[in-house]
Amino acid sequence: GAGVSQSPSNKVTEKGKDVELRCDPISGHTALYWYRQSLGQGLEFLIYFQGNSAPDKSGLPSDRFSAERTGGSVSTLTIQRTQQEDSAVYLCASSLVHGSNQPQHFGDGTRLSIL
Amino acid sequence: DQQVKQNSPSLSVQEGRISILNCDYTNSMFDYFLWYKKYPAEGPTFLISISSIKDKNEDGRFTVFLNKSAKHLSLHIVPSQPGDSAVYFCAASEAGTASKLTFGTGTRLQVTL
């Protein structure tokens, strides 16, 4: 498809387990972002990748969260030793970067539920 | 510290009338503003954006107004249609190029027949 693709769409896991969430950005988009939306809240920035530059990790809530982007395309967000407060919808977005403002385009998210 | 605020959690408008959604921000470094629409179980869909060098941007039924001195922006939808019923998020970023977005908490718009 032409849009941002995320998998899985839903994930239920037990507290303490590790989870991996995947994002395929729009082809040709050099910038990739992860956000999360907790119940009743707005979207919260987590991490940002731009080309080969070091990622902006300023939004990661704890060291249990990490992300990587391989080959400048697919990204994986990993949460280790999950806690109940990690339950949220995790959204990935991508955008073109050509020196002017470009909107971010979102996938449909992964709904993560920690039991 | 909520840097982008949408103070109305919900709004109900009759079909055919104008919908006005409001957003306030506190960070004077924001220079790019966007509106997204979100349906349940889907990701946010980009609607319209505006750069801080403008005070108005129009795209079909959607117009965004920016008042920098008041740190306020609004989204006007006219005429409103039932399919516009969704949650609308205001977002802002600091850099001139793509950067992390700061979102408001959203306004749920319901367009009634």
| Cα shape of chain B | globular
Helical amount among residues of chain A, as a percent range? under 10%
> Which consecutive residue ranges of chain A, at least 5 long each, have pLDDT under 50?
none
Instruction: Specify the biggest β-sheet of chain B.
Output: 6 strands, mixed
Q: What general outline of chain A do the C-alpha atoms trace?
A: globular
Number of distinct beta strands of chain B: 11
Secondary-structure-derived class of chain B: mainly beta
Distance between the termini of chain A: 32 Å
- Please trace the helix and strand order of chain B, writing H or E for each element: EEEEEEEEEEE
* Beta strand % of chain A: over 45%
Structural features, described:
The complex is a heterodimer of chains A (115) and B (113). Chain A is mainly beta and 115 residues long. Chain A is built from no helices and ten strands. In chain A, strands 2, 4, 5, 8, 9 and 10 form a six-stranded mixed sheet that branches. In chain A, strand 4 (31-37) and strand 5 (43-50) form a beta hairpin. Chain A is globular. Chain A starts with a strand and ends with a strand. The model of chain A has no long low-confidence stretch (mean pLDDT 91). Chain B is mostly beta strands and 113 residues long. In chain B, 0% of the residues lie in helices and 53% in strands. Chain B has no helices and eleven strands. In chain B, strands 2, 4, 5, 9, 10 and 11 form a six-stranded mixed sheet that branches. The mean pLDDT of chain B is 93. The interface between A and B is medium-sized, with 32 and 26 residues.
Put the structure in a nutshell.
By secondary structure, chain A is mainly β. Chain A has no helices and 10 strands.
